[in-house]
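name: query_chain
kind: protein
chains: 1
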Amino acid sequence: MDKVIGSAQEAVADIAAGSVLAVGGFGLCGVPFALIDALLEQGADELTTISNNCGVDDAALGVLLYAGRIRKTISSFVGGNKELARLYLSGQLEVELTPQGTLAERLRAGGAGIPAFYTPTGVGTLVADGGIPIRYDADGNVVETSRPKEVREFDGQQYVLETALTADFGLVHALMGDRHGNLYFHESARNFNPLAGMAGRITIAEVEQLVEPGDLTPEHVHLPGVYVDRVVVVGGDHKPIEKRTTRPRPSAGVPAAAGEEATEGAA
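structure:
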């Protein structure tokens, strides 16, 4: 079955207002930028996003936040995005905070058909006991908090019950994909992408390179095509760096530090 779609715009055309989206990426690494930008152009709003973080101020899911398209986000990290903080504290955005490993497992469980699981992460904290602010009103008052979760003991250790996550659509970015939807992710860009792809009822993959079925050996398939419904070729030119950090080079005539070679040119 050939799952290749002609454009990102065509691939996201049926994402409706109020949809739940599981979105791959970590920071700005492995983010499906083309699909997000196409969704911004498409206009769907009242969205719920499930992602490690909700983009930054001017990129990734941040562009949907600035456009007022996201109603709720389920994430493990919401720092680095001033607009998210403003919307959250002014009652315009619901935020469900989930520990990072728990978020990953909730997505994997959803894709595997497991309704819930027990984890020690969060026992004895607000994660298990409830009380984390989910929604504020316009005056900055907390109007909704997380509910207490079931805690159960196994072999003398306490575990908290976490429920699985599924989404109407999964949006992922891969280095390579074939026409059957089998995907290969490059190193750290793999991050949450396979999990978001598993959790989506309809998963859309943007790929940098399209290969023919059989070119990806089984051990190189990180997400099997059974989870993927649409493939869009987007190339690999758009890869912004979230925070560029470079070590200052020693100036001319100044000896390099011990164990460090002086080099010419910019970092």
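note: The CA atoms of residues 4 and 231 lie 5 Å apart.
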